[in-house]
Each structure stands twice: as structure tokens, then as C-alpha cells.
Design goal:
It contains 22 helices and seven strands. By secondary structure, the protein is mainly alpha-helical. Strands 2-1-3-4 form a four-stranded parallel beta sheet. Strands 5-6-7 form a three-stranded parallel beta sheet, with helices on both faces. The radius of gyration is 23 Å and the shape is globular. It binds iron/sulfur cluster (SF4) (2 copies). One iron/sulfur cluster (SF4) binds next to helix 5.
Length: 499
Amino acid sequence: MANHDVPEVKEDIETPELHEGATAHLAIFPAQEKHMVPLGFPGARVENWQQAGVDKLKDLLEKYRSLQVYLDICVKCGSCTDKCHYFLGTGDPNNMPVQRAELMRSVYRRYFTPSGKFFPQLVNARDFDEETLKKWVTYFHQCSQCRRCSVFCPYGIDTAEITMAAREIMDAIGVGHKYSQEIIGKVHTIGNNLGIPKPALNGTLRFMEDEILDATGQEVRLPVDVKGAEVLMVAPSADFFSAPHVESLMGYAKVFHAAGVSYSFSSIASEAANFGMFIGSYEQKRKIASRIAEQARELGVKRIVVGECGHAWRVAYSFWNTLVGPFDTLDPRYPVPQHICEFTNDLYKRGGLTFDKETNDDKVVTFHDSCNVARASRMGDTPGGQFTIPRDLIRATCNHYADMDADTIHEKTFCCGGGGGLLTDELMDLRIKGMLPRVTALKQVMKHDKVNFLALICAICKAQFSKVLPYYDIPMDTVGGVHQLVNNAIVLGKNKGVV
Ligand code: SF4
Ligand code: SF4
């Protein structure tokens, strides 16, 4: 493990002392021409970038009324100041949500309010100059768009929307982040974030079929591009190759097999994730999502099920219909889309699956609510289903479960520290520090309830926790998917055709 400054984990989450500029030195790798141009952005910073940036802000203010409202209505009450995991982990005041948003508000005041135009110093209005842009690049890439701050804001100001707008403006002037742009490029050229071509995808799925056959004696299929399948299964590409993600993929396959429901992955829509949201680009979000809608039509499926990926679920649940809908070729009896937890839990409740909980008896499980599922979407047809359904499924597959502190779960959950396009090596220092509040709550239940397994429904959370928890002396195999528990507990060959 590389050397990093790891904050001390206290008994409880504490508000840190202020450290002005504590993370000002953290720099992202800039996107290059080859990443930017194919996505329709300038290849380098444009000559008239200051005016172009202000023009783009004007454009966004006209397009998104919410942005203007968020920039206008903050009363500086301070309720959000200690709610961001990056502030709690770093003490940098620019990581207070109100202060982060002020980086844009001050520019907004300068160019779009009479007082800012004529008396900028009186209202703390700021030019969109070199120094301001540097702060934007730094601190709008220290926000994981988790929306926790908005839960505590009396006006519901969504700082994540401000971050998305800032990144959209920066892309428009040719100042992009390599990590997100490169990944989006791979989705368009190869089909998925990891750049897995079809032959490799096929190879890994055949390998998993062999693994399951060896372990269970059952011929469980992981099919690709099958026309006429009932379900199009859209998983994050990390599920095909990364650990612990693959365990969940095997869990999905066993669920379909056990219930006798035909399904298929797609080699073209081989990615549930949608980084278009992270860079704030409606057009990229639409292009990435449209691959899935087209594949659903092409394969003639009746329903679409989405795997364990937090922001993918937000895009699917909250935006698909207006982005790429209507999904009129699908069977209207089923929700569009459906989350894999909802799908599995529903089958289980209707007698379509059998679980042997004792297979998970070596585990005391807790559940981490992923931000984009908890605060930006729902699951099932009951309010709060995004909280109850994954927990119901865990309890159906395990005998031992304990929740973390109530102030750190459900809609108050803390980000893993790697969301929003920040799961990149150059930000490892931030990712470690940003995980502090979640680790504090996790260590509490490890101590008091003997928890030894952190169940997740997000590919980014899985990657972030398994890489960063060892810095806090927690083994990486403490982490796994909810469908990893399903994969262990499911009894094959019992329920086929029950529902
Ligand atoms: S959206 Fe999340 S990461 Fe961004 S400022 Fe708010 S709490 Fe921090
Ligand atoms: S809680 Fe809302 S109104 Fe209060 S300072 Fe934060 S963003 Fe502004």
C-alpha cells in the first residue's frame, strides 16, 4: 500500500478543526484532446475561456431553473457545514458544502446580479479568473455528488447539482477530468467502462459458468445477446471482472436459473454505469442510456433489470423515462426499470426462491446505503423501499444482521468517498480521508455487534471500500455485494416454475 496520511478514527464522528487549504494541493489528471474531442468538447482550454465559461453559466441558468434557485436562496445558515464527508475527513473549509457552492455563487453574483456587477467587493463577488478556475478544478472534484448536504439544508439546496454544473462549464471551456472522459470514451467505442471487448466478456462469462458448475453441479447460464429472452440484465462492467463484484454476478445468474426466468446480458449495453451524470452532461447521459433502450428493443425483452450500481440505478430510475423512453416494447406489468434486489426479493417473497441462511453464518452483516440509491431514487412501490428491500433480502439470506448508527444510514448515509467520478488513483488521499465518517460508524458496529461483513449494492462502493478499508486496518474481504450473500445462500433446483 502506498503511503498516505490516514486520519485517526475516534469513537464518534467529530467536527474537525479548520485546516485552510488542507486539500488545495490535490490535483486531478487533466483530460487530453484525445479524450475530450470525441465527446464533443474542446480539445484544450479555449482562448476566450473566461467569457466562454460565463456564457455557459448563463446557458445553464436558463436551462435549469433549479440551478438559479440554488444559487439565489442560500441564507448561509450553516446547517450543511459539517455534513460533508470530505470536510469531516479533511477540515478544509472549501469542502464545506456552502463554501464549495460559494465558489460558483460568487461568480454568479459577479456577472448576473446588479450588486455584483457594480459593487463586487461589497457582495464578495468574484471574477471568473485563473485563480477561481483553479479552485473550481480542485474543489468541484472533491465533491462526490452524494447529496447528503441537501438532506440537512432547510431550503433543499442540492450542492451536487452545482458541482455537476461546474463540471459542465469546465468541459465546455476545454478543462476536463481525464478519469471520467476516458471512461465515457470507452463506453462509446467498446461498450463498457472497463473496456472489455465482446470476446473477453464471453470468455469471462463461460469461465463463471464452469466455476458454478464445479461448485454446485448445476448448469447455470450467463448468456449474452440472446434474442427473445424475458429479461435484459444490465450490470456494471466491474461485475464481470472485479472482486468482490463477480460474486454478485454469479448471484444474479443463480436467481434467474433458480426461478426459471430467461435472461440475457448484452455485449453492446454491457455497462449499467453512466458517467454522463458525473460530468453533468445531459447529452452524454442520454447517449449512454440510449444503448440500453436500443438493446432492449433489439433483443425483444419484456423487462429490464439493473444490477448493483448506485448511480446507474439513479440514472435508470430517475432519468431513463425522460432521457430515452418511452419503453413501449416492454411488458407494462413490470416496473421499468427494476432493481435486481427488488427482483430477487419479490421472487423470494412469492416462493420462487429458497435460501439456506446457515451458509452465511460466518458473517455478521451490516448494510451501507449507497448515496444515489438512498437519496436520489426509490426501489419497489413503497416509499422507503430503497432502504427496506436490500435489508429484507439480507435478512432472508443471513441470520446475523446489525445496522450502523441511525445518523449514518438511510437518507443520512455517508458516501464511501469514491463516488461522483472520484474513484481515481490521483485522489487516493481524498478518498481515504473522505471515508472517515463511514469507517467510524462501521468500526462502532464491528466493536459492539461483531460485524464482519459490509454488504453493498454499488460497484463504486465495492471498489472504494475494498481498496481503502485496509488503510484503516479492516481487511478488504470484509466487503461484498448483497447478491454475494444471495450467491452463497441460494438453493438451486428447488423452485423452478413456482412463479
Ligand atoms: S454533495 Fe456530498 S460531497 Fe458534495 S458537498 Fe454535498 S455532502 Fe459534500
Ligand atoms: S444549509 Fe442550505 S441555506 Fe444553509 S448554508 Fe447550507 S446551503 Fe445555505
